[in-house]
Design a protein that fits this description.
The structure is a homotrimer. The first copy, chain A, has ten helices and no strands. By secondary structure, chain A is mainly alpha-helical. Chain A has one domain (3-193). In chain A, helix 2 (31-53) packs parallel to helix 6. Chain A is globular and about 50 Å long.
Chain lengths: 206, 206, 206
Amino acid sequence: MDTFLLALDFIGTFAFAISGATIGVRHRLDLFGVLVLAFATATFGGILRDLLIGAVPPAALTTWTYLALACVAGLATFYRHALVERLRNPVQLFDAAGLALFAVSGASKALAFGLSPFAAVLLGMLSGIGGGIARDILVARTPVVLQADLYAVAALAAAAVVVAGHQWGVPEPWSLVTGAGLCFGLRYMAIRHGWRLPVARPHDAP
Amino acid sequence: MDTFLLALDFIGTFAFAISGATIGVRHRLDLFGVLVLAFATATFGGILRDLLIGAVPPAALTTWTYLALACVAGLATFYRHALVERLRNPVQLFDAAGLALFAVSGASKALAFGLSPFAAVLLGMLSGIGGGIARDILVARTPVVLQADLYAVAALAAAAVVVAGHQWGVPEPWSLVTGAGLCFGLRYMAIRHGWRLPVARPHDAP
Amino acid sequence: MDTFLLALDFIGTFAFAISGATIGVRHRLDLFGVLVLAFATATFGGILRDLLIGAVPPAALTTWTYLALACVAGLATFYRHALVERLRNPVQLFDAAGLALFAVSGASKALAFGLSPFAAVLLGMLSGIGGGIARDILVARTPVVLQADLYAVAALAAAAVVVAGHQWGVPEPWSLVTGAGLCFGLRYMAIRHGWRLPVARPHDAP
């Protein structure tokens, strides 16, 4: 993986780790519980992707950088929680950044492993949404991916941009930045302006 | 995988996708959330099986048919929910069909990958129960496999029939149909007539 | 894997299976649900480890001993629940034993597969905490690893002792027993005397 992609992966790790640690602090976990939640949120999407493409052992477990980033983010959130919360909706914003960066880096890694464009789009989406799903299941709440406005759609769009760029020969940094920007923008507008898809109106269930 | 087995896999995918989408509509998810839940329910059992036998990337992520089936089932359930609910207990019935079809196709695929009869029975059961577990965990309720009458037992029986048929040289379509019929029948009788195993009577816990 | 390590693995399987079955009985599951929960608790950590190091199909699915141990533990707990509960805090004690034994055997297996010391410590911790996470998610409660005092820390310490012993050439049985004893001791003191890490004090969240 080249340096630019690795940088995106590290920033995504840090962003998801902060979102996980913030949820942990709000649930009054102890210090190590906060670190575990930060690490799980930050790495689950990438571990899932690596398992699914057969890249074992996953990078998140063999490279110490991921754990170090998650610990720094977790410690900062634990001891400077007021500062993190002063940002408006920190969980949602850092989560959106992690989602965007993992969706593009996941799609790119899947292409590098020779997967088809179709599979690369799906794997990019899964890499993006995996971390948030793990975080929410661990604190026993329904994952944000099923509730939030334009969540999986945004990850799908980011992965599709990267795969389309690859097909059309666009230089990779361009499509990575465009895809991540599109995903973050969609999530930001959805959070800020309540953009959303039609919601199910259940018929009277038995 | 031969055509007959593939057909069973596709029907199971469609059945599980409807059961997942119905749960999604009842929980008032948005359109994409319903599709995500339909896809997760429909493919998790197969993805789990493929991970466990080392068949990566899993078929559900490389073949577009699975996603297409899940989307058709999800859209139909989203826009025609009244129709789906008019069937009696649609979640349970479609879930029973998915359970039966995945248990037999899972056991058969495990045998084709050279696993032992013992492992093939276990993997068939896991393929069957995986989708329902993913669906229920995603909406934060206790998985039906732990509560419902004769649920894992039925999947185990279906997988055992397939493996026994393989050992005794019975033509595969016969044992696949017999196993799936047995599993669906057991679940149907359990739902209809309340067949069940003894329930734990906890001693007064501290 | 040599005999001593295998014995530790079997004892850990049995201990985790009893902790899972006890939770199942308390939640009034039926007989098969209790067995499923016992098997999932007993094997999920090891299956996770084997998936992550690429040792597929996982030993827990190809060797009948794991299933047999889980079934014996599950049946004993189901039909002799009063006896199990008479032990003080049986879930916590058997869980601590399983945690200790899986953390050391997981770290040792990761080293045997040629992973780096860093990855082996992480994988040992994951093998230890995986079973309890699966058990708690299946009954829809927040995993004990995020709440309990010194839980993941204890697993981490055990795995670190094994890896350090391997680096320094200590005979393996010694480091396995020391690591497991340290982990069990830490958990016991934490349960008995309320040893714990600092707890997050969330700033007023929006």
